[in-house]
Every structure is written in structure tokens, then in C-alpha cells.
Design brief:
Helix content: 40-55%
Mean pLDDT: 92
Strand content: 5-15%
Low-confidence stretches: none
Radius of gyration: 22 Å
Largest sheet: 4 strands, antiparallel
Length: 334
Amino acid sequence: MDSLTHIVLGAATGGAVLGRKAGNKALLWGALAGSIPDFDVAITSFYEPVRSLFVHRGFSHSIVFAIIVAPLLGWIISKIHKDIGFRQWTLMTLIAILVHSTIDCFNTYGTALFEPFSGVRLAFDSIGIIDLVLLIPMIILMIIAIFQPKFSNNRKFLSLVALGYTMLFISFSVVNKIFIESKIKRQITCQQIDYKNLKTAPLPLTNFLWLVLAEDSNGYHFGYYSNFDKDKISLKYIPRNEQMLGKLLGKQKVRELIRFTDGFYTVTKKNDGSLWLNDLRFGSMAFESENDWYVFSFQINEIDKEVIVSRAHPNRSFGSKTFSLYWKRVFRDI
């Protein structure tokens, strides 16, 4: 999830565990503890681009990391605020970190919850990286909680409501994904589209606009579907083009790059002859236009038998025009 969601969710965790005893201090330290796993972004720039993809949401998001860090942070906080014991601060910190890692598992990026014992990255693809329907009510609840008297039960109650709302929203997102997938499967079957693997994932901002990737042996039927769409789904075909990689397909870095995309990628060659591998899992905020751009695009070169991978950062911003296009696409058929 985005940083603000983790901050608010961490504050709610702090308020639920120690809001009655520690007041707003619980919210502050909960917000910090709930943000700690994402501190890994501070070190990713020191890694080679492909390796950095797995450093983020890697060990810092694991259960082992939470067990190690929680007592350390709990001890530090207990030395600063001596009116509450080490065990209570440690419990709050542990829960806040685990809440962060758990909710990230419902995004598309993938979370290594079981490192260092397993490199499997969990990605349930039911919540966008940011969802305003989740975030805004939580912000409102926690702002109200901040202005409660120090020893008021209302702070804890509001925090519990925020956490309960989060759990309900996650449950809704899973049910909505199952519902959307069932509709999509019926539609693409009626269109006689053969596929061996189907991926659906929500775009950012709401849980109502979904990316669709129906994979066959050569590529993907790619498109978008809204909860409010009445017309049949419209898909375009994107070839995988893995043959363009040639002998590079056997190189370790390229294999790791493909593993990061979970196998949902396309290879393109630009006019200047440069070779690019694009991750399709996050869709494009260009929607159905011909100017698709991808969140993760990587240029691949081989120099002196060494594979060099560099990530492109698209010159795109989520401005008012894109925001307007997004909502028009969500409610197009209403």
C-alpha cells in the first residue's frame, strides 16, 4: 500500500492496543512502527536494478523481521515513555509491523512474508496500491481520535473501528475480485477466447476498475473492466515476443526479471534498436488508448557478455486530466 495508508493504519493499531493508556503517543509510535517495513526503499538504490526489485517488500516485510525489530523498538519506546512497560510497547510494535506486511500481500507487487525461509512472494491482487475508499474513512476516524482526551476510551474505540473497517474492506476486495473474475470468464468464453491463465488486478484509487490479462501460449488478451460496465469486455492482443530476447532469455538477470513479472510481460524493440521488457501486471493509466505506458519497463543490453538492465521511469504524472479519464472510465456505462 502507499505510505499514507500505512501511517494511518499503524496509528490505528497503536490506538487500538495502547490508545487508552498512552493517548496520542500510541498513535505516533504506531504510525512509525507501521511504516518501518517500507524503510527498505532507502537502500534499494544501492542494489543492481533487478536485485532491488526483490529487496523492496523482501526481508523487511517478513514475519522474522517483525519478530526481531519489535522488541528493539519496544525497548527504545519504553525508555522514552517509562509509564508503560516494554512488553506492551513491543506487542503494539509487533502488531503494527505485521499489519503492514499482511495488507501488502493483497497488492500486486508481491510480499516476501516468509523470508528468509522462502522466497515466495504473496500477491492476492485484490487491492490497488492506493485506494481512496479505504484511505479516506480511516483518515477521518484517526483525525477525530487525535482530538480525544488523553485517557478517553473513544480513542481506542475509533481505532478499533478503523481497523475493523480495514478488515471489512479487504474482505470486500476479495469477494469483488471473485465476482469480477466470474463475469470476465463468462464474457471471454462467449467471445471464444482461449487462454491458459487469467490475472485480474485493480487499478489504483478504487476497487471498481480492473486490469484483465488472459494469457495464451503467445501473449495476452489485455483490457480493463469496471464494476459498472454493461457492455461486453473489449480486449486487445499483446504478443509476448520472448523470441526477441534470443540468447538473453537464458541469462540469470533476465530470468529474474521475468520471475518478478510473474510471467506477465511483453518484449518490445524501439526505433533506436533498444530492447525493452515491460511488466504488464500494473496496467496503464492510458487506459484503452494506443499510448500505453507501463509502471515497470526495463531496457536490456549485453556489453562484453555482461547483461545490463536499467529501469525506465515514465514521464507521466497523475494530474487532473488523468484523474478525470480514470473516473470517466470507471463510470462509463452509467
